[in-house]
Design brief:
Mean pLDDT of chain B: 84
Order of helices and strands of chain B: EHEHEEHEH
Largest sheet of chain B: 5 strands, mixed
Number of helices of chain A: 15
CATH topology of one domain in chain A: Cytochrome-c3 Hydrogenase, chain B
Shape of chain A: globular
Oligomer: heterodimer
Helix content of chain B: 25-40%
Shape of chain B: globular
CATH class of chain B: Alpha Beta
CATH architecture of chain B: 3-Layer(aba) Sandwich
Distance between the termini of chain B: 19 Å
Number of helices of chain B: 4
Structural class of chain B: alpha/beta
Strand content of chain A: 15-25%
CATH topology of chain B: Rossmann fold
Helix content of chain A: 40-55%
Largest interface: A-B, 65 and 54 residues
Radius of gyration of chain A: 22 Å
Strand order of the largest sheet of chain A: 3-2-1-15-16
Chain lengths: 489, 162
């Protein structure tokens, strides 16, 4: 048996690793996806006042600190059994949707963009943000950077601090916004709606107008028929901040809908000896291995999953785009992993529209933003939809609010089994040749991985500024290196 | 921020053991008397967010933790000095985490921003950046002292030259 290793090394040891094992006939036998473990998180949290977790948990990740802050804040509301002040809730959701705008935009231009705008088979030296700029023009890149800066301005206005918000307190937020700040947010969010529309148009022009890409998206190598999880509001529309968790089957029929606090009744965890990271699955269906279909409890939680799990979007422009998404791709649910990129842009438009809607709500400048807790429950679950999947925070405390137990399920963990399956299927579909493994074919396998935008929950920056990639093909018995491809090393 | 100014930027994660070294050095540096035109900041994030931080400065000095591969075999606490030219543009992204410094600098140039002409990185070889904790390992704590001295000397030399 030979081993193909796709090993992207980020700045530190915090890197993911993809290992592809092939037999002597070069047939893919198995694919392993591993990510490194950060140690001692629970021990670090235990013994601290629970309010601190809203400031500690965002530091697990440099990409989505806002998601952890929101999930933590909601869990802490529950620990103190306090009802959130209505304006406090509006401000949290406004901050959160603004964060979504910036996160989804960045993903499209930095991660997905290079594959589609430059082409999956293009020279890796050009397949990056700088290449994308060359194609789409400096103006678009400048607009994206401006959007990010303006979103950061809004997040720091509400969050009290850029990057790591500190506004979330049990029962609401720490400060109200002024009418002047509100006016600025209305202006910024209006511009974000326009940019989201522009980005969807770009996706149309670059991806949907190219039949090869549409075929690639719909191809079997990038398709899995799984269950889908996502948060929905009372009308079963997508919501990122609050609602119930809905799960639909591969046939699109609702399997279950539950409150976040009951997650342990619905999600169980499978363990494999080679990975410290667990494989969550649906309890009511059961673990049947790394396989898809109605009998397998493997589920996905991603932008595509959220669209599949909901009946629509709660804002008008995003709803229209939602309908076009399903009519173009052949009805609900869509199982094509690469359609996640389009789903993400539908969500981008929703996030911008929703943020604008919240900013124009007259109550948004109400100075009464917090209810002070008067008692303690001692246990709480907070759930939000993080960009990369449903995020669960579960805390237990003593009667003084000192942490005794912490459990988190993060976006990438939900998708752990599905990512392994997607990589295997893509490898089977693409590595049909054998020894000559081209740069392009490996990139196609990685595209399956990038659709999930897996988050290793560690790297906040990169040294020495690059992500080297080594691909080796080895004969299992002798460890003889048959082929080795190195990039950026 | 003023043109002609120098930014000293401590980077890292304050709750991942040695990864907090850059933040600590920046904090310590703030407590010292600095030449005119030097600003000290801390950042827990990188990628595109770095672009906004470094724009407009003439010179940037970054302090961060480094974990080299075994083949490089660096000693814990070893200080490695990089210049901007050592950073290639990032070509591969497994996730949004990994847009590199080289890419950020090139992107800023292409967009016509005032980007620093001179970027130096002091990277400190870490022992542990994967365990949650707020303490530095002894060799990294000792290296933090040495880096402080090195940066103070560089800033003083630059001030004298000006």
């Amino acid at each position: 048996m030979k081993k193909i290793s796709v090993d992207p090394i980020t700045r530190l040891e915090g890197h993911g690793k993809i290992e592809i094992f092939v037999d002597d006939d070069n047939k893919v036998q198995n694919v392993y996806f591993q990510i490194p473990e950060l140690r001692g998180f629970e021990r670090f949290c235990v013994g601290r006042p629970v309010e601190e977790l809203a400031r500690i948990t965002p530091r697990i990740c440099g990409v989505c600190p806002e998601a952890h802050h929101m999930a933590a804040t909601k869990a802490i509301d529950a620990v103190f059994g306090v009802e959130v002040a209505p304006t406090g809730r509006l401000l949290r959701e406004l901050l959160y949707n603004t964060f979504y705008v910036t996160d989804h935009t960045t993903h499209f231009y930095i991660l997905a963009g290079p594959d589609f705008i430059m082409g999956p088979q293009s020279d890796p030296a050009a397949r990056n943000i700088l290449g994308v700029i060359g194609k789409v023009g400096l103006e678009t890149a400048g607009a994206m950077i401006k959007l990010r800066a303006e979103a950061a301005e809004v997040i720091s206005m509400i969050g009290g601090k850029q990057i790591h918000p500190v506004c979330g307190l049990p029962g609401g937020v720490s400060q109200a916004i002024t009418a002047e700040q509100r006016d600025r947010i209305v202006e910024v969010t209006a511009a974000q709606i326009e940019f989201a529309k522009f980005t969807l148009q770009l996706f149309d022009d670059v991806v949907l107008a190219n039949n090869d890409y549409v075929e690639l998206i719909k191809s079997d190598a990038f398709t899995h028929e799984t269950y889908y999880m996502g948060m929905v509001d009372e009308n079963n529309k997508v919501n990122f901040y609050d609602g119930q968790i809905r799960v639909v089957g591969p046939d699109g029929v609702e399997l279950e809908k539950f409150a976040g606090k009951d997650y342990l009744d619905h999600i169980a965890e499978h363990v494999e000896p080679y990975s410290y990271l667990v494989y969550p699955y649906l309890k009511s269906v059961g673990w049947k291995g790394f396989t898809d279909g109605k009998d397998s409890g493997v589920y996905r939680a991603s932008p595509l999953s959220r669209l599949n799990a909901a009946d629509g979007m709660a804002t008008p422009l995003a709803q229209a785009e939602y309908e076009r998404f399903y009519s173009t791709l052949g009805g609900k649910p869509v199982h094509a992993t690469l359609a996640t990129h389009w789903a993400r842009l539908v969500e981008l438009l929703y996030a911008a529209e929703r943020a604008h809607e919240l900013a124009t709500d007259p109550e948004i400048i109400n100075p009464d933003v917090r209810n002070i807790p008067t008692g303690i429950v001692g246990e709480g679950v907070g759930v939000v939809e993080a960009p990369r999947g449903t995020l669960y925070h579960h805390y237990k405390t003593d009667d003084k609010g000192i942490v005794t137990n912490v459990n988190l399920i993060v976006g990438t963990t939900n998708n752990n089994a599905a990512i392994s399956m997607s990589l295997k299927k893509a490898a089977e579909g693409i590595l049909t040749g054998g020894k000559d493994i081209s740069e392009g074919s490996l990139n196609m396998i990685e595209m399956a991985f990038r659709a999930y935008d897996p988050c290793f929950g560690c790297a906040t920056h990169t040294l020495p500024g690059d992500m080297p990639l080594q691909v080796t093909v080895k004969r299992e018995a002798t460890r003889e290196v048959i082929t080795s491809v190195k990039r950026n090393m | 921020m003023t043109l002609g100014a120098t930014l000293v930027l401590g980077m890292g994660n304050p709750i991942l053991s040695d990864d907090g070294v850059g933040l600590l050095v920046a904090e310590r540096l703030r407590g010292t008397s600095l030449p005119h035109g030097v600003e000290v900041l801390q950042s827990e994030v990188g990628g595109l967010r770095l672009l906004e931080l470094v724009r407009g400065f003439t010179r940037v000095i970054i302090i961060d933790a480094l974990k080299s591969s075994d083949e490089v075999a660096r000693q814990p606490g070893e200080i490695v000095r990089y210049e901007a030219k050592d950073f290639k543009g990032g070509h591969r992204y497994g996730s949004a985490h990994s847009i590199g410094l080289g890419t950020v600098l090139e992107l800023g140039d292409r967009l016509g921003y005032d980007m620093p002409a001179d970027v130096t990185v002091f990277a400190i070889e870490a022992v542990d950046v994967e365990t949650f904790g707020e303490e530095l390992s002894p060799p990294v704590a000792a290296a933090a002292e040495r880096v402080l001295g090195m940066i103070a000397a560089e800033l003083a030399a630059a001030a004298d030259a000006a």
